Amino acid sequence: MAKRAAPEINAGSMADIAFLLLIFFLVTTTMDVDTGITRILPPPVKNKNENVDVKERNVMKVLINSHDLMLVNGKPAAISNLTQKVVDFMSLHPNNKSYPEVQEKFIPGLGKKVLMSKGIVSLKNDRGTSYKMYISVQDAIAKAFNLMKDQESLKYYGLKFDQLVDPKKIKTVNKLVPIRVSEAEPENVGGQ
Amino acid sequence: MRENTLLVKIKLPTATQVQKLQKKSLVSYIYIGEPVNTTLGSTSRIQLNDSYATVKDIPEFVSKERQARNEADRNLITTSLKVDENTKMGIVTDVKQQLRKANALKINYSTRKVLKR
To answer: Is residue B2 part of a domain?
Structure first.
């Protein structure tokens, strides 16, 4: 038998095929990044009759009904100016009775006492409220608190809150602007 | 790279003030929305893992999720609520009440990020 050279596979296009496969997998792989609004739920109440007394002037009542309409302290309001209202409500006015009370609190990160508002945003929604509306309201309130965090951060560190790197500073600003949002027990008034 | 096949339709609402979820291994998911299979009607359903569930199943789900994690990490679990934007708050509130009872207090309302409304 004559010796024949083993036939060779033409591997010239191998790189092209590999490249195409790479592109294919790059395009088809989905990496969903999870984003959202993080909140801490209040711990379960053991004694149902135990209601925490909060003074009327310290509470900003936000109500949403089953038709997705909003009342802020008994007056109709729109989402567009809710942020402004929350910022205004939480601002410090020690001698004005129509604003929440203020108290001095010791902030370890700053090593001194700082005046802080005792205001609370109380959010109450109906069972028939749409989730979309609820999220827009939560978003507007979150925006207000983030604005205040930016303010405090600029005041003490000269940087916006999301530009802070030092975890100690971030913690201090979080202490300075606690997210004071309370959610009431659900109600069913407007029907589903 | 999804962990679960979705049995419910979910179109997440949009928000501007969103944060990224930090540790994915410490996140458990609860899905709420209309069933994909239209023969099941259009009432919103809860999906835990790979099956439909009722509100009562949540405490058990939470304790199972806890047991699946390290002892040190058990209090750091975030529950991500992936809820369709057209869902009524009733069912969401029920879920939240159950989570409170089960002491899973860290929650995240999953939303898509938009820059401006």
So the answer is: no
Q: Which residues of B touch A (CB under 8 A)?
A: 1-2, 13-21, 24, 27, 78, 80-81, 83-90, 92-93, 96-97, 99-101, 103-113
Q: Which two tokens stand for residue A59?
A: 């509470």
**Spatial separation of the C-alpha atoms in residues A70 and A137, rounded to whole Å:** 9
Q: Quick check: A192 and B88 CB within 8 A?
A: yes
Is A94 within 8 Å of A102 (Cβ atoms)? yes
* pLDDT, tens only, A135-186: 999 989 988 988 898 888 888 888 888 888 888 888 888 888 888 888 876 6
Q: What is the CATH number of the domain that holds B66?
A: 3.30.420.270
Tell me the residue range of the domain where B37 lies: 8-112
Q: By the 8 A CB rule, do A180 and A119 touch? A: yes
Residue B106 placed within a domain: yes
Query: Could you give the number of structural domains in chain B?
Result: 1
Distance from CA of A8 to the nearest CA of B (A): 39
**Positions of chain B with pLDDT lower than 70, given as ranges:** 1-3, 116-117
Nearest residue to B24 via CA among B62, B71, B80, B75: B80
In a domain, B3, yes or no: no
Nearest CA in chain A to B85: A132
